[in-house]
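INTERNAL AUDIT FORM
Audit reference: QA-55
Scope: verify that the stored structure record matches its stored sequence.
Auditor: D.O.
Record contents follow.
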Amino acid sequence: MSEKILVLDAISKSFDGKTILNNFSLEIERNEFVTLLGPSGCGKSTTLRIIGGFVKPDSGRVLFEGRDITLLPPEKRSVNTVFQKYSLFPHMTVRENIEFGLKLKKKTRQYIHDKIDYALKLVNMEGYAERSPDSLSGGQQQRVAIARAIVNEPEILLLDEPLGALDMKLRHNMQRELIKIKKEVGITFLYVTHDQEEALMMSDRIIVMNKGIIQQADTSKNIYDEPQNAFVADFIGDSNIIDGIMRRDCLVEIQGVEFPCVDTGFGTNEKVDVVIRPEDLELTAPEDGLLSGTVLSVIFKGAYYEIKVEIRGFEWMIQSVNPAIPGTKAGITVLPDNIQIMHKPLSEDAEVVKDE
């Protein structure tokens, strides 16, 4: 049986008259790895700071294990935070940085020694205890910051874009390390990022946010395969999102051509958004496609070619292991199972991501 460790109940927060969180509610289970994902300014970091006690909400409650901690100061919460800027004390050694919180809690010398040895081993930093932070790489400093948080045995570890300053290879390595650490220590992780790939790889559940509102809360697979609106479909990975007309159950019209699909319950002749992932489109000879047009560009991406085909004023993106030749004619086809049908958004919050 699942156990809720944290509940955000109707949280709202504004800064300088601008609403950052709007009646925001979220439940987190014990030992979950939950990622808050969304564009800059969507309210991710504000949510984390409210949980950590650094920001007071204008309204709503923060409940920890059923207890209202909304007004509790940060040091009284069973929560630790790791920021993108690691905030290590430069005048202290790695050991002194990690033991700082334990000394404040007046733990015994042996307890502190054992805890530090355990934490350094956990983050693969054995042998670095007497080094200064300035002598460490960015990835090593990040590991020390995580070790410092873990030794305090928080019930929840908050991570606010902790990998943002790292290069791509080190970032990927640290993603795997964080997953391993999470399993080892059994702490609930609440992670903030705007990196879709990072969220999909690491999370038990992803909370997709836009303008202070949750657009979808689901597993990585469901977020990718079954986005609930155009915003989620466009923000998570690449998507072709095009206007369509649901003629009847299991039949949608796209650019004047009827495509079989598997969606039902939309009524007759309803205007809809149609979402098709680039990897689900098949490039064909012009005469074999359900639609056909002109190849605009071909970019080699390593594992596949990214091909753009212009058809009746819309640029379709296809990911294929087979190349095409720009300027030539090509067709596209798609299996019914790979067509996602969505209601048109009722507000701009659920529309396709806009460049800011």
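Auditor finding: record pair retrieved intact. The chain has eight helices and 20 strands.
Action required: none
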